[in-house]
Amino acid sequence: MSPLRATATSRGRRPALVALVCVLVAAVLGAVAVAAFHALSGPESGPSGKEPVPGKSSDGSGNEGGSEGGDADGGEAVTEREPLQQGTGLYPRAIRLRHSGAANGHVLASTVTFRGADGLGAIHESTDDGRTFRRVGDVADPAAADGKGQCCGTLYELPRRIGDMPPGTLLWAASTGQDEDDGRRMSVRVFKSTDVGRSWSYLSTVATARGEGGGAGLWEPEFSLDAHGRLVCHYSDETDPAHSQKLVAARTSDGRNWTGHHATVASVPEPDRPGMAVVRRLPDGTFFMVYEICAPSGKYRCVVHYRTSEDGWDWGDPAGLGTRPETADGHYFAHTPNLAWAPEAGNPEGKLLLIGQAAHTRDGRRVPGERREMWTNSDGGKGPWQEKKAPVPVRSTKLDHCPNYSPSLLPSADGRRVLEIATDYDGGVCRPYRAMGPT
Cα separation of 437 and 303, whole Å? Predict the structure, then answer.
């Protein structure tokens, strides 16, 4: 988690003040009414073996259920930014369904929001490729109720059977418990839906902090499948006294029992804080992870890095910090990265789309106009990245928990367009906005 809620040595330990402000704003504005539920789940489909890779999935789409590909009509239309929802909406995520029968092609988006003092995962659906959305469900976790706190939700569609869960099962996970009055006991909890996001039930807990390290946190869950078809959850862990924060991965073969918890990025200097991992699988089977590494001070505070893995589980020496993506003129991203893969005509590798909260020049200055910037790379992340205009203009220049904080990218099937959801201030409210533009 970026140091936008606290100091670098305590960052990620989200201040109760921020959560209280969000709760009060949501209480004033009220929750958006939930649209009428209707069942759209389709028949089981998908493989029972390894995770599909782009261009090689069982349905021919090349999607694994993350921010990858989908619209059939292509085109390069640009749309104006519009709010995804009324009121507070944090940490947006977007996926396009590929394993959900009659709902295939629908776009689902999620945010962390509040109803009074209760944290919620708001689920929105688009049946027209992201042009319009309606709210269709809520993830209501009792562990996030009554002001206990919730952060950093993620949304994922299973591309294959995991335990008794068929392909198309939706998963939602978040960090909960950061604001408990009787001592922080944060956990990463997973919920599932079998009716395209209309209803949700508790599935499992990936990890629980149990107050180690004086109320240390567990943040920013992210799902992927490893090369053997096991479900992996990546998250940021503050519970190791030797590390202010490190990245950890755990895996499961049934969705309920999580094992093998191990560090994937753990910097040797104790104050360093690797966090906010996002993982995508490339057409050649390589797994690509982006993340930030924050430090107490210096030019590269919270700079974005990446590393790769052959199997999505073993990421090499955790002390290796990875590679810093840069443009040809030395620009780099800092804070809250997100990543997507898109096909590219004539290039079997496709291209990666990268975005972060703030872009900086070689000498550490903020890039003018950078709040509408994303990058692409057509060589598997190697070499310089190309600067492009991001679809959503973010008008606030603040560096805190709201403007452009962990935006989400969802490319079209032909890779020519991308849907972006990014947060920005509307008065004192942090709202998610959506727009579409060329890649």
Answer: 26
